[in-house]
Amino acid sequence: YYSLLSVEPHATPDEIRKAYRKLALRFHPDKNPDAGETFQKISTAYATLSDPQRRQVYDRFGE
Fold first, then answer.
1. In which domain, by residue range, is 21 found?
2. Which pLDDT score is estimated for 30?
3. Are 49 and 5 spatial neighbours (Cβ–Cβ below 8 Å)?
4. What was the pLDDT predicted at 10?
5. pLDDT (tens digit, 0 to 9) for every residue of the chain, 63 residues total?
6. Which residues does the UniProt record annotate as the domain J (predicted)?
7. Given phi > 0 = left and psi -120 to 50 = alpha, else beta, which region is 56?
8. d(CA 32, CA 5)
9. How many domains does the chain contain in total?
10. What values do phi and psi take at 58, rounded to 5?
11. Dihedral (CA of 42, 46, 49, 54) sign
């Protein structure tokens, strides 16, 4: 998920949010109809990394 959002594993929540917003604008289905699947992957990555508990589980065990 870190590579998908182009952030380091030690990134702060603000860095993760900024990276997500940048990618969400680029791949949003309204602006780029062919990128629906990519947008879903980005959204899943953000949901996992933005929640401290889910991020800790992801860091230990992966997806």
1. 2-61
2. 85
3. yes
4. 92
5. 999 999 999 999 999 999 999 999 998 888 888 888 899 999 999 999 999 999 999 999 988
6. 1-62
7. alpha
8. 18
9. 1
10. -65, -40
11. negative
